[in-house]
From TrEMBL:
Residues in PurM-like N-terminal domain copies: 33-136
Pfam families listed in its UniProt record: AIRS, AIRS_C, ThiN
A molecular function GO annotation: thiamine-phosphate kinase activity
Protein name: Hydrogenase expression/formation protein HypE
Residues covered by the PurM-like C-terminal domain: 153-310
Protein backbone atom coordinates (compact mmCIF):
# COMPACT_ATOMS: atom_id res chain seq x y z
CA UNK A 1 0.00 0.00 0.00
CA UNK A 2 1.19 3.53 -0.82
CA UNK A 3 -0.13 6.69 0.83
CA UNK A 4 -2.02 7.12 4.07
CA UNK A 5 -2.96 4.09 6.16
CA UNK A 6 -6.54 2.98 5.69
CA UNK A 7 -9.36 4.04 8.01
CA UNK A 8 -9.66 0.71 9.80
CA UNK A 9 -5.97 0.51 10.69
CA UNK A 10 -5.98 4.15 11.78
CA UNK A 11 -8.90 3.57 14.14
CA UNK A 12 -7.53 0.29 15.52
CA UNK A 13 -3.79 0.84 15.75
CA UNK A 14 -3.19 4.60 15.88
CA UNK A 15 -6.15 6.52 17.24
CA UNK A 16 -6.19 4.71 20.64
CA UNK A 17 -2.53 5.61 21.21
CA UNK A 18 -2.26 9.38 21.55
CA UNK A 19 -0.47 9.77 24.85
CA UNK A 20 -1.92 11.69 27.76
CA UNK A 21 -5.26 13.43 27.45
CA UNK A 22 -5.55 17.19 27.94
CA UNK A 23 -8.64 19.41 28.28
CA UNK A 24 -7.02 22.07 26.07
CA UNK A 25 -7.38 19.78 23.03
CA UNK A 26 -10.43 20.95 21.08
CA UNK A 27 -9.75 18.97 17.90
CA UNK A 28 -7.44 15.99 18.22
CA UNK A 29 -6.37 13.20 15.86
CA UNK A 30 -9.06 12.19 13.35
CA UNK A 31 -8.97 10.66 9.90
CA UNK A 32 -9.27 13.47 7.37
CA UNK A 33 -8.92 16.39 9.78
CA UNK A 34 -6.28 18.80 8.54
CA UNK A 35 -4.93 20.13 11.85
CA UNK A 36 -5.20 19.87 15.61
CA UNK A 37 -6.80 22.71 17.58
CA UNK A 38 -5.94 23.65 21.15
CA UNK A 39 -7.73 26.22 23.33
CA UNK A 40 -5.06 28.42 24.96
CA UNK A 41 -6.68 31.05 27.12
CA UNK A 42 -9.11 32.99 24.93
CA UNK A 43 -7.52 31.90 21.66
CA UNK A 44 -7.41 28.79 19.52
CA UNK A 45 -4.07 27.38 18.41
CA UNK A 46 -4.16 25.34 15.17
CA UNK A 47 -1.14 23.15 14.42
CA UNK A 48 -0.52 20.82 11.47
CA UNK A 49 2.28 18.60 10.25
CA UNK A 50 3.01 16.97 6.90
CA UNK A 51 5.83 15.17 5.10
CA UNK A 52 6.70 16.68 1.71
CA UNK A 53 8.73 15.07 -1.06
CA UNK A 54 9.53 16.28 -4.57
CA UNK A 55 8.77 14.70 -7.90
CA UNK A 56 11.72 13.35 -9.87
CA UNK A 57 12.12 16.63 -11.78
CA UNK A 58 10.77 19.14 -9.24
CA UNK A 59 13.05 22.18 -9.02
CA UNK A 60 14.27 23.43 -5.62
CA UNK A 61 12.16 26.55 -6.07
CA UNK A 62 8.96 24.58 -6.75
CA UNK A 63 9.80 22.21 -3.90
CA UNK A 64 10.13 25.19 -1.56
CA UNK A 65 6.79 26.65 -2.67
CA UNK A 66 5.01 23.31 -2.27
CA UNK A 67 6.53 22.77 1.18
CA UNK A 68 5.30 26.08 2.55
CA UNK A 69 1.87 26.08 0.94
CA UNK A 70 0.93 22.49 1.75
CA UNK A 71 1.88 23.03 5.38
CA UNK A 72 0.15 26.41 5.56
CA UNK A 73 -3.02 25.13 3.87
CA UNK A 74 -3.70 22.68 6.69
CA UNK A 75 -3.82 25.52 9.20
CA UNK A 76 -5.67 27.95 6.93
CA UNK A 77 -8.62 25.58 6.48
CA UNK A 78 -9.18 25.76 10.23
CA UNK A 79 -10.04 29.42 9.76
CA UNK A 80 -6.75 30.53 11.31
CA UNK A 81 -3.90 32.44 9.67
CA UNK A 82 -0.66 30.41 9.63
CA UNK A 83 2.05 32.30 11.52
CA UNK A 84 4.97 30.04 12.43
CA UNK A 85 6.70 26.95 11.07
CA UNK A 86 9.53 24.49 11.60
CA UNK A 87 10.73 21.87 9.14
CA UNK A 88 13.05 18.88 9.08
CA UNK A 89 15.07 18.56 5.87
CA UNK A 90 16.43 15.04 5.29
CA UNK A 91 19.05 14.69 2.55
CA UNK A 92 20.93 11.93 0.71
CA UNK A 93 24.64 12.07 1.61
CA UNK A 94 25.76 13.37 -1.78
CA UNK A 95 23.23 16.21 -2.11
CA UNK A 96 25.02 19.28 -3.58
CA UNK A 97 25.25 22.25 -1.26
CA UNK A 98 23.91 24.62 -3.92
CA UNK A 99 20.72 22.52 -4.14
CA UNK A 100 20.29 22.70 -0.35
CA UNK A 101 20.96 26.44 -0.26
CA UNK A 102 18.48 27.06 -3.08
CA UNK A 103 15.77 24.99 -1.42
CA UNK A 104 16.24 26.65 1.99
CA UNK A 105 16.19 30.09 0.35
CA UNK A 106 12.96 29.25 -1.49
CA UNK A 107 11.25 27.99 1.66
CA UNK A 108 12.16 31.24 3.39
CA UNK A 109 10.95 33.37 0.47
CA UNK A 110 7.52 31.72 0.26
CA UNK A 111 7.09 31.65 4.03
CA UNK A 112 7.78 35.38 4.11
CA UNK A 113 5.18 35.97 1.38
CA UNK A 114 2.53 34.34 3.60
CA UNK A 115 3.68 36.15 6.72
CA UNK A 116 5.06 32.95 8.26
CA UNK A 117 8.12 33.00 10.53
CA UNK A 118 10.45 29.98 10.51
CA UNK A 119 11.39 29.38 14.14
CA UNK A 120 13.38 26.14 14.00
CA UNK A 121 13.91 22.76 12.40
CA UNK A 122 16.61 20.32 11.43
CA UNK A 123 18.83 19.69 8.40
CA UNK A 124 20.98 16.59 7.94
CA UNK A 125 22.39 13.90 5.62
CA UNK A 126 21.24 10.28 6.01
CA UNK A 127 22.16 7.12 4.13
CA UNK A 128 18.61 5.79 4.30
CA UNK A 129 17.28 8.85 2.44
CA UNK A 130 17.26 8.53 -1.35
CA UNK A 131 15.77 11.91 -2.34
CA UNK A 132 15.67 15.29 -0.56
CA UNK A 133 12.64 15.04 1.73
CA UNK A 134 10.86 17.25 4.20
CA UNK A 135 10.51 14.66 6.94
CA UNK A 136 7.98 16.92 8.58
CA UNK A 137 6.84 20.51 8.30
CA UNK A 138 4.95 21.87 11.30
CA UNK A 139 2.88 25.03 10.86
CA UNK A 140 0.78 26.78 13.47
CA UNK A 141 -1.16 29.93 14.16
CA UNK A 142 -3.73 31.26 16.60
CA UNK A 143 -7.03 33.09 16.40
CA UNK A 144 -10.25 33.92 18.20
CA UNK A 145 -12.43 31.64 16.06
CA UNK A 146 -11.94 28.26 14.46
CA UNK A 147 -13.52 26.33 11.56
CA UNK A 148 -13.26 22.55 11.30
CA UNK A 149 -14.33 19.89 8.78
CA UNK A 150 -16.91 18.83 11.40
CA UNK A 151 -19.00 22.00 11.25
CA UNK A 152 -21.18 21.42 8.15
CA UNK A 153 -24.85 22.21 8.80
CA UNK A 154 -28.00 20.92 7.11
CA UNK A 155 -29.00 23.40 4.42
CA UNK A 156 -25.44 24.58 3.72
CA UNK A 157 -24.25 25.13 0.18
CA UNK A 158 -21.26 22.98 -0.80
CA UNK A 159 -18.60 24.91 -2.71
CA UNK A 160 -15.29 23.81 -4.18
CA UNK A 161 -12.47 25.86 -5.68
CA UNK A 162 -10.47 25.31 -8.87
CA UNK A 163 -11.86 21.84 -9.70
CA UNK A 164 -11.03 18.18 -9.17
CA UNK A 165 -7.62 16.44 -9.40
CA UNK A 166 -5.48 19.60 -9.20
CA UNK A 167 -2.40 17.96 -7.70
CA UNK A 168 -2.65 14.74 -9.67
CA UNK A 169 -2.84 16.55 -13.00
CA UNK A 170 -0.03 18.96 -12.09
CA UNK A 171 2.45 16.31 -11.00
CA UNK A 172 1.71 13.96 -13.89
CA UNK A 173 2.06 16.81 -16.40
CA UNK A 174 5.35 17.93 -14.85
CA UNK A 175 6.82 14.42 -14.86
CA UNK A 176 5.32 13.03 -18.07
CA UNK A 177 4.87 16.12 -20.22
CA UNK A 178 6.65 14.63 -23.22
CA UNK A 179 4.51 11.49 -23.05
CA UNK A 180 1.35 13.60 -22.93
CA UNK A 181 2.46 15.57 -25.99
CA UNK A 182 3.39 12.35 -27.83
CA UNK A 183 -0.11 11.03 -27.10
CA UNK A 184 -1.60 13.98 -28.99
CA UNK A 185 -2.62 16.20 -26.05
CA UNK A 186 -2.24 19.82 -27.12
CA UNK A 187 0.79 21.79 -25.86
CA UNK A 188 -1.56 24.40 -24.39
CA UNK A 189 -3.32 21.81 -22.24
CA UNK A 190 -0.04 20.27 -21.08
CA UNK A 191 1.35 23.70 -20.21
CA UNK A 192 -1.82 24.61 -18.31
CA UNK A 193 -1.68 21.38 -16.31
CA UNK A 194 1.97 22.03 -15.41
CA UNK A 195 1.09 25.49 -14.11
CA UNK A 196 -1.33 23.94 -11.64
CA UNK A 197 1.70 22.97 -9.55
CA UNK A 198 1.44 26.50 -8.14
CA UNK A 199 -2.29 26.03 -7.49
CA UNK A 200 -1.66 23.30 -4.90
CA UNK A 201 -2.62 25.62 -2.04
CA UNK A 202 -5.85 26.72 -0.40
CA UNK A 203 -4.33 29.43 1.80
CA UNK A 204 -5.79 32.29 -0.25
CA UNK A 205 -9.32 30.94 -0.62
CA UNK A 206 -9.55 29.79 3.01
CA UNK A 207 -8.69 33.33 4.09
CA UNK A 208 -11.30 34.78 1.72
CA UNK A 209 -13.95 32.39 3.02
CA UNK A 210 -13.34 33.51 6.61
CA UNK A 211 -13.56 37.17 5.56
CA UNK A 212 -16.87 36.66 3.74
CA UNK A 213 -18.27 34.82 6.75
CA UNK A 214 -20.94 32.18 7.08
CA UNK A 215 -18.48 29.35 6.45
CA UNK A 216 -19.18 26.32 8.63
CA UNK A 217 -16.68 23.71 7.42
CA UNK A 218 -13.51 23.69 5.32
CA UNK A 219 -11.28 20.87 4.12
CA UNK A 220 -8.48 20.43 1.59
CA UNK A 221 -9.14 17.56 -0.85
CA UNK A 222 -5.84 15.71 -0.62
CA UNK A 223 -5.45 11.90 -0.83
CA UNK A 224 -8.58 10.25 -2.19
CA UNK A 225 -9.39 13.49 -3.96
CA UNK A 226 -12.66 15.35 -4.08
CA UNK A 227 -14.77 12.27 -3.40
CA UNK A 228 -12.94 11.46 -0.18
CA UNK A 229 -12.79 15.13 0.83
CA UNK A 230 -16.57 15.46 0.55
CA UNK A 231 -17.12 12.20 2.40
CA UNK A 232 -14.76 13.23 5.20
CA UNK A 233 -16.62 16.51 5.78
CA UNK A 234 -19.93 14.64 5.86
CA UNK A 235 -18.54 11.92 8.14
CA UNK A 236 -16.98 14.39 10.57
CA UNK A 237 -20.14 16.52 10.63
CA UNK A 238 -22.64 13.65 10.81
CA UNK A 239 -24.59 14.90 7.78
CA UNK A 240 -25.65 13.77 4.32
CA UNK A 241 -24.77 15.26 0.95
CA UNK A 242 -26.35 15.78 -2.44
CA UNK A 243 -23.62 16.55 -4.97
CA UNK A 244 -24.41 17.27 -8.64
CA UNK A 245 -21.59 15.73 -10.65
CA UNK A 246 -22.23 17.98 -13.66
CA UNK A 247 -21.50 21.02 -11.50
CA UNK A 248 -18.05 19.80 -10.47
CA UNK A 249 -15.42 21.63 -12.54
CA UNK A 250 -13.02 19.28 -14.31
CA UNK A 251 -11.03 21.63 -16.58
CA UNK A 252 -10.02 20.39 -20.03
CA UNK A 253 -6.33 20.04 -19.15
CA UNK A 254 -7.10 17.96 -16.07
CA UNK A 255 -9.55 15.80 -17.98
CA UNK A 256 -6.98 15.16 -20.71
CA UNK A 257 -4.23 14.19 -18.25
CA UNK A 258 -6.50 11.92 -16.21
CA UNK A 259 -7.86 10.22 -19.34
CA UNK A 260 -4.34 9.56 -20.62
CA UNK A 261 -3.10 8.04 -17.40
CA UNK A 262 -6.32 6.16 -16.62
CA UNK A 263 -7.23 8.10 -13.46
CA UNK A 264 -10.69 9.04 -12.22
CA UNK A 265 -10.46 12.83 -11.57
CA UNK A 266 -12.93 12.62 -8.68
CA UNK A 267 -10.88 10.03 -6.77
CA UNK A 268 -7.24 11.17 -6.97
CA UNK A 269 -5.21 13.55 -4.85
CA UNK A 270 -6.29 17.16 -5.27
CA UNK A 271 -4.26 19.39 -2.97
CA UNK A 272 -5.46 22.86 -3.93
CA UNK A 273 -9.16 22.03 -4.07
CA UNK A 274 -10.90 23.67 -1.12
CA UNK A 275 -14.12 21.96 -0.03
CA UNK A 276 -16.29 24.23 2.08
CA UNK A 277 -19.85 24.46 3.29
CA UNK A 278 -21.48 27.78 4.10
CA UNK A 279 -24.84 29.30 4.88
CA UNK A 280 -26.79 29.30 1.59
CA UNK A 281 -27.37 33.06 1.73
CA UNK A 282 -23.58 33.55 1.70
CA UNK A 283 -22.90 31.39 -1.36
CA UNK A 284 -23.20 34.16 -3.98
CA UNK A 285 -20.95 36.52 -2.00
CA UNK A 286 -18.45 33.70 -1.54
CA UNK A 287 -18.32 32.99 -5.28
CA UNK A 288 -18.04 36.70 -6.09
CA UNK A 289 -15.11 37.15 -3.69
CA UNK A 290 -13.32 34.13 -5.14
CA UNK A 291 -13.86 35.44 -8.66
CA UNK A 292 -12.51 38.86 -7.71
CA UNK A 293 -9.36 37.14 -6.43
CA UNK A 294 -9.02 35.17 -9.69
CA UNK A 295 -9.97 31.85 -8.08
CA UNK A 296 -12.44 29.60 -9.90
CA UNK A 297 -15.20 28.19 -7.70
CA UNK A 298 -18.59 26.53 -8.01
CA UNK A 299 -21.53 25.48 -5.88
CA UNK A 300 -21.75 21.72 -6.44
CA UNK A 301 -24.45 20.63 -4.00
CA UNK A 302 -25.99 20.95 -0.59
CA UNK A 303 -25.83 19.46 2.89
CA UNK A 304 -28.83 17.32 3.85
CA UNK A 305 -29.81 15.36 6.98
CA UNK A 306 -27.73 12.27 7.70
CA UNK A 307 -30.71 10.02 7.08
CA UNK A 308 -30.91 11.21 3.47
CA UNK A 309 -27.52 9.64 2.77
CA UNK A 310 -24.60 10.85 0.65
CA UNK A 311 -24.99 10.69 -3.09
CA UNK A 312 -23.82 11.90 -6.45
CA UNK A 313 -26.70 13.16 -8.58
CA UNK A 314 -26.16 12.24 -12.21
CA UNK A 315 -27.49 14.11 -15.25
CA UNK A 316 -29.93 11.33 -16.09
CA UNK A 317 -31.57 11.51 -12.67
CA UNK A 318 -29.75 8.52 -11.18
CA UNK A 319 -28.25 8.66 -7.71
CA UNK A 320 -24.90 7.02 -7.04
CA UNK A 321 -23.69 6.50 -3.50
CA UNK A 322 -20.85 8.83 -2.50
CA UNK A 323 -18.17 6.74 -0.77
CA UNK A 324 -14.47 7.31 -0.14
CA UNK A 325 -12.28 5.50 -2.69
CA UNK A 326 -10.56 2.47 -1.19
CA UNK A 327 -7.20 3.63 -2.53
CA UNK A 328 -5.84 6.72 -4.24
CA UNK A 329 -4.40 5.31 -7.47
CA UNK A 330 -2.38 8.44 -8.13
CA UNK A 331 0.54 7.20 -6.07
CA UNK A 332 0.93 4.12 -8.24
CA UNK A 333 1.39 6.43 -11.21
CA UNK A 334 3.53 9.00 -9.41
CA UNK A 335 6.10 6.58 -8.01
CA UNK A 336 6.50 4.96 -11.42
CA UNK A 337 6.96 8.31 -13.16
CA UNK A 338 10.61 7.83 -14.04
CA UNK A 339 9.99 4.39 -15.52
CA UNK A 340 7.02 5.69 -17.50
CA UNK A 341 9.03 8.68 -18.67
CA UNK A 342 11.43 6.43 -20.58
CA UNK A 343 8.73 3.97 -21.60
CA UNK A 344 8.41 3.52 -25.36
CA UNK A 345 4.99 1.89 -25.09
CA UNK A 346 1.95 3.57 -26.54
CA UNK A 347 -0.85 4.68 -24.18
CA UNK A 348 -2.86 1.65 -25.32
CA UNK A 349 0.02 -0.68 -24.45
CA UNK A 350 0.50 0.97 -21.04
CA UNK A 351 -3.22 0.49 -20.31
CA UNK A 352 -3.03 -3.13 -21.54
CA UNK A 353 -0.14 -3.95 -19.20
CA UNK A 354 -1.83 -2.17 -16.29
CA UNK A 355 -5.04 -4.18 -16.77
CA UNK A 356 -3.08 -7.42 -17.07
CA UNK A 357 -1.08 -6.60 -13.94
CA UNK A 358 -4.30 -6.07 -11.99
CA UNK A 359 -5.56 -9.48 -13.10
CA UNK A 360 -2.32 -11.12 -11.97
CA UNK A 361 -2.65 -9.49 -8.54
CA UNK A 362 -6.21 -10.78 -8.26
CA UNK A 363 -5.06 -14.31 -9.08
CA UNK A 364 -2.32 -14.01 -6.45
CA UNK A 365 -4.82 -12.82 -3.84
CA UNK A 366 -7.27 -15.62 -4.73
CA UNK A 367 -4.35 -18.08 -4.41
CA UNK A 368 -5.00 -20.35 -7.37
CA UNK A 369 -1.73 -22.20 -6.70
CA UNK A 370 -3.42 -25.60 -7.11
CA UNK A 371 -3.89 -24.82 -10.80
CA UNK A 372 -0.38 -23.54 -11.53
CA UNK A 373 1.69 -26.07 -13.56
CA UNK A 374 5.16 -27.19 -12.55
CA UNK A 375 6.54 -25.20 -15.49
CA UNK A 376 4.61 -22.12 -14.37
CA UNK A 377 1.67 -20.36 -15.93
CA UNK A 378 1.57 -17.32 -18.16
CA UNK A 379 -1.28 -14.94 -18.79
CA UNK A 380 -1.25 -13.17 -22.15
CA UNK A 381 -3.49 -10.27 -23.23
CA UNK A 382 -3.48 -8.69 -26.67
CA UNK A 383 -4.40 -5.35 -28.17
CA UNK A 384 -7.71 -5.10 -30.01
CA UNK A 385 -5.99 -5.21 -33.41
CA UNK A 386 -3.14 -7.56 -32.48
CA UNK A 387 -1.24 -8.97 -35.45
CA UNK A 388 2.09 -10.08 -33.99
CA UNK A 389 3.81 -10.98 -30.73
CA UNK A 390 4.82 -7.42 -29.91
CA UNK A 391 1.08 -6.58 -29.72
CA UNK A 392 0.64 -8.98 -26.77
CA UNK A 393 1.41 -8.38 -23.09
CA UNK A 394 2.46 -11.19 -20.74
CA UNK A 395 4.53 -11.85 -17.60
CA UNK A 396 8.23 -12.26 -18.45
CA UNK A 397 8.93 -14.50 -15.44
CA UNK A 398 5.58 -16.34 -15.34
CA UNK A 399 3.27 -17.18 -12.43
CA UNK A 400 4.86 -19.84 -10.23
CA UNK A 401 3.92 -22.00 -7.26
CA UNK A 402 6.05 -21.17 -4.23
CA UNK A 403 5.35 -22.61 -0.77
CA UNK A 404 1.69 -23.11 -1.53
CA UNK A 405 1.15 -19.60 -2.91
CA UNK A 406 1.23 -17.94 -6.32
CA UNK A 407 4.41 -15.96 -6.93
CA UNK A 408 5.07 -13.65 -9.85
CA UNK A 409 8.38 -12.77 -11.42
CA UNK A 410 8.23 -9.44 -13.20
CA UNK A 411 5.62 -6.97 -14.34
CA UNK A 412 3.70 -7.30 -17.63
CA UNK A 413 5.69 -6.54 -20.76
CA UNK A 414 4.86 -6.43 -24.44
CA UNK A 415 6.01 -9.32 -26.64
CA UNK A 416 7.62 -11.48 -23.94
CA UNK A 417 5.67 -14.76 -24.25
CA UNK A 418 6.26 -16.71 -27.43
CA UNK A 419 3.98 -19.65 -26.61
CA UNK A 420 0.97 -17.87 -25.11
CA UNK A 421 1.32 -15.02 -27.58
CA UNK A 422 1.41 -17.36 -30.53
CA UNK A 423 -1.55 -19.30 -29.17
CA UNK A 424 -3.85 -16.29 -28.79
CA UNK A 425 -2.94 -15.07 -32.30
CA UNK A 426 -3.99 -18.42 -33.76
CA UNK A 427 -7.23 -18.51 -31.76
CA UNK A 428 -8.05 -14.97 -32.98
CA UNK A 429 -7.85 -16.13 -36.60
CA UNK A 430 -11.16 -17.88 -35.88
CA UNK A 431 -12.52 -15.93 -32.91
CA UNK A 432 -11.28 -12.32 -32.97
CA UNK A 433 -13.15 -11.56 -29.74
CA UNK A 434 -10.62 -13.71 -27.86
CA UNK A 435 -7.91 -11.52 -26.33
CA UNK A 436 -6.67 -13.39 -23.31
CA UNK A 437 -5.26 -16.86 -22.50
CA UNK A 438 -3.64 -18.65 -19.55
CA UNK A 439 -2.12 -22.13 -19.31
CA UNK A 440 -3.00 -24.28 -16.27
CA UNK A 441 -2.54 -27.82 -14.96
CA UNK A 442 -4.50 -30.64 -16.57
CA UNK A 443 -5.43 -33.19 -13.88
CA UNK A 444 -8.53 -35.38 -13.49
CA UNK A 445 -9.99 -33.06 -10.84
CA UNK A 446 -9.40 -30.05 -13.10
CA UNK A 447 -11.24 -31.75 -15.95
CA UNK A 448 -14.07 -32.70 -13.58
CA UNK A 449 -14.30 -29.14 -12.32
CA UNK A 450 -14.53 -27.84 -15.91
CA UNK A 451 -17.43 -30.21 -16.55
CA UNK A 452 -19.15 -29.27 -13.29
CA UNK A 453 -18.93 -25.57 -14.13
CA UNK A 454 -20.33 -26.14 -17.63
CA UNK A 455 -17.23 -24.86 -19.40
CA UNK A 456 -17.06 -25.50 -23.14
CA UNK A 457 -14.02 -27.77 -23.52
CA UNK A 458 -12.34 -28.87 -26.75
CA UNK A 459 -9.37 -31.23 -27.04
CA UNK A 460 -6.48 -31.06 -29.47
CA UNK A 461 -5.48 -34.34 -31.16
CA UNK A 462 -2.67 -36.44 -29.73
CA UNK A 463 0.34 -36.08 -32.07
CA UNK A 464 2.02 -39.12 -33.62
CA UNK A 465 4.44 -40.77 -31.20
CA UNK A 466 3.50 -38.05 -28.68
CA UNK A 467 6.02 -35.74 -30.34
CA UNK A 468 5.15 -32.24 -31.57
CA UNK A 469 7.09 -29.22 -32.79
CA UNK A 470 5.82 -25.66 -32.29
CA UNK A 471 4.75 -25.49 -35.92
CA UNK A 472 2.85 -28.77 -35.61
CA UNK A 473 1.18 -27.45 -32.43
CA UNK A 474 -0.11 -24.36 -34.22
CA UNK A 475 -1.27 -26.47 -37.19
CA UNK A 476 -3.27 -28.75 -34.87
CA UNK A 477 -4.61 -25.74 -32.94
CA UNK A 478 -5.92 -24.23 -36.20
CA UNK A 479 -7.67 -27.50 -37.07
CA UNK A 480 -9.20 -27.63 -33.59
CA UNK A 481 -10.42 -24.04 -33.77
CA UNK A 482 -11.81 -24.50 -37.27
CA UNK A 483 -14.05 -27.27 -35.95
CA UNK A 484 -15.50 -25.02 -33.19
CA UNK A 485 -18.77 -23.18 -33.75
CA UNK A 486 -18.14 -20.83 -30.82
CA UNK A 487 -15.20 -19.73 -28.71
CA UNK A 488 -14.44 -22.49 -26.18
CA UNK A 489 -13.67 -21.76 -22.55
CA UNK A 490 -10.96 -24.39 -22.33
CA UNK A 491 -8.63 -26.16 -24.75
CA UNK A 492 -7.02 -29.42 -23.65
CA UNK A 493 -3.43 -29.55 -24.90
CA UNK A 494 -2.37 -33.04 -26.04
CA UNK A 495 -0.15 -35.35 -24.04
CA UNK A 496 3.47 -35.15 -25.25
CA UNK A 497 6.69 -36.89 -24.22
CA UNK A 498 8.48 -35.20 -21.31
CA UNK A 499 5.95 -32.34 -21.24
CA UNK A 500 3.43 -31.61 -18.52
CA UNK A 501 -0.24 -31.98 -19.45
CA UNK A 502 -1.92 -28.58 -19.63
CA UNK A 503 -5.13 -26.81 -20.45
CA UNK A 504 -5.61 -23.34 -21.91
CA UNK A 505 -8.34 -21.08 -20.55
CA UNK A 506 -9.57 -18.45 -23.02
CA UNK A 507 -11.35 -15.17 -22.43
CA UNK A 508 -12.29 -11.83 -23.92
CA UNK A 509 -10.39 -9.87 -21.24
CA UNK A 510 -8.38 -10.47 -18.05
CA UNK A 511 -11.44 -10.03 -15.87
CA UNK A 512 -13.14 -12.94 -17.60
CA UNK A 513 -10.02 -15.06 -17.17
CA UNK A 514 -9.85 -14.23 -13.46
CA UNK A 515 -13.50 -15.18 -13.02
CA UNK A 516 -13.07 -18.51 -14.82
CA UNK A 517 -9.82 -19.43 -13.07
CA UNK A 518 -10.99 -18.53 -9.56
CA UNK A 519 -14.21 -20.49 -10.09
CA UNK A 520 -12.19 -23.43 -11.35
CA UNK A 521 -9.84 -23.28 -8.34
CA UNK A 522 -12.76 -23.16 -5.93
CA UNK A 523 -14.41 -26.19 -7.55
CA UNK A 524 -11.15 -28.16 -7.57
CA UNK A 525 -10.80 -27.46 -3.85
CA UNK A 526 -14.35 -28.70 -3.24
CA UNK A 527 -13.56 -31.92 -5.09
CA UNK A 528 -10.65 -32.49 -2.72
Amino acid sequence: MIGKVDDAFFRQAILPHTGAGDPEVVVGPRMGVDAAVLKIGEEYLAVAEDPIFPGPTTSPDDFGWITVHIGASDVAVMGIKPRFMTYSLLLPPETPEDYIAGLVRSISTYARELGITIVGGHTGFYGAVTIPTIGGITVWGRGREVVTPAGAQVGDAVIITKGAAIEAAALVACELGEKLLAAGISPDLVARAKKRLREMSVVAEAGIAVEVGGVHAMHDATEGGLERGLWEVAEASGVGLRIERARVPVPADIRAVCDYIGLNPYEVISEGTLVLTCAPEKADAMLASFKEAGIEAAVIGRVVPAGAGRAWLEDDGREEQLLPPAVDRFWEVFFNALALKNDTRTPAEVALCRELGQAVRELEEANVAALIPEIGANLAYCLLEAKELRDIAAIPGRLLRFKGRVATLGEPEMGCSHHMGGTILVVREFFPQARCVINLRNKPRVRQACADLGYKVVSMPVPPDYRQTDDDFYTDLRRTMAACRELPDVIEIPDRINLERLILVLGRNPGEIVSKVTSLAARVAELG
